[in-house]
From TrEMBL:
Gene3D superfamilies: DNA-binding pseudobarrel domain. Pfam families: B3. The keyword Cell inner membrane does not apply. Its main location: nucleus. This is TF-B3 domain-containing protein. PROSITE patterns: B3. Coiled coil: none annotated. One of its GO terms (molecular function) is DNA binding. It comes from Rhododendron simsii. Keywords: DNA-binding, Nucleus, Transcription, Transcription regulation. The keyword Ribonucleoprotein does not apply. It comes from the Eukaryota. It is found in: Nucleus. Residues 18-110 form the TF-B3 domain.
DNA sequence: CAATCTAGCCATAGTAACTG
DNA sequence: CAGTTACTATGGCTAGATTG
């Protein structure tokens, strides 16, 4: 929830948001999602309405029905839930970007590493809230792209498409590497933050003692962070290229496969 | 008949009122 | 003023209705 909070805080505040963790009735039996009453009262129409959910992953739109009497997303919610493969415990952040239109960010309980990475990048970049939300989307997109590639692969004949499998494996290996990098970045970012806080504290308590040396140490740490960020950017670019290559291969395969 | 949707019921948490 | 109780709002579950 702390991670969700951090993501939430880095979204554009001019759009109202609400956070919802997935329970059994939202992702299995019944397939309906309750909105919090205060949010529904403030931002939802006073009548049943069709609501558009825009997946932050691929900008794909899903229509669902909002039932005002129960403050729930009902008809159509199941399609979104299945398409995004939502599980109990996953947390969704709904950002109201237009009347009856939400952008939806998925924070998966089982894959918090994805969000950790996004948070690490937020610490590093810090050049505006809009940019931050793009970073989160991009980071989650990359991880989801790897999963999507698996889904595609499951639909085709593995035996006759070894090359695609290999590409998929390479892609997953790359994702693993990037996740590991992100974990390290997060740790470094937190450490640097602690250092800055402790530096400020010491400065308050003991005046200007060793100020120069402490600043030097901080600069070294910051340089390390920047270096790691540049390395990560390179890996992300390479990962994107791999994803495009895999998509092309799958597309070719789909074109060649008779209906 | 199976999948999907809806509405009602129940449990729980929060709050207000009452009592000692 | 603090503790207890009762009421209300909210959220989750599930059975029944509807639709294809």
């Amino acid at each position: 929830m702390n991670r969700v909070k951090e993501v939430q805080e880095n979204l554009d505040p001019k759009f109202p948001i609400f956070v919802k963790s997935m329970n059994r009735s939202a992702v299995t039996v019944g397939f309906m999602l309750k909105l919090s009453r205060p949010f529904a009262d403030l931002h939802m129409p006073g009548h049943d309405a069709s609501v558009v959910l825009v997946d932050a992953f691929d900008e794909e739109e899903y229509r669902t029905k909002f039932l005002v009497t129960k403050s729930v997303f009902s008809g159509g919610w199941k399609a979104f839930s299945i398409a995004r493969r939502l599980l109990e415990g996953d947390v969704l952040i709904f950002q109201l970007i237009k009347p009856c239109e939400f952008k939806v960010y998925v924070v998966r309980e089982s894959e918090l590493g994805e969000v950790d990475g996004a948070v690490a990048l937020i610490h590093l970049k810090g050049d505006g809230r809009q940019r931050n939300s793009e970073i989160i989307t991009e980071t989650i997109n990359i991880a989801n792209a790897a999963k999507a590639s698996n889904l595609l692969a499951s639909r085709i004949d593995f035996a006759s498409h070894i090359e695609i499998s290999k590409a998929s494996e390479q892609l997953q290996a790359s994702v693993g590497s990037v996740r590991a990098q992100m974990g390290r970045l997060d740790a470094l970012a937190l450490k640097a933050k602690d250092e800055v806080e402790s530096f400020k504290e010491r400065e308050r308590n003991s005046g200007q003692v060793h100020r120069g040396e402490q600043k030097k140490a901080l600069v070294v740490k910051l340089l390390k962070l920047i270096e790691a960020k540049v390395r990560l950017d390179g890996e992300i670019e390479s990962l994107k290229a791999n994803t495009s290559r895999l998509e092309l291969m799958c597309q070719k395969e789909a074109d060649n496969t008779p209906n």
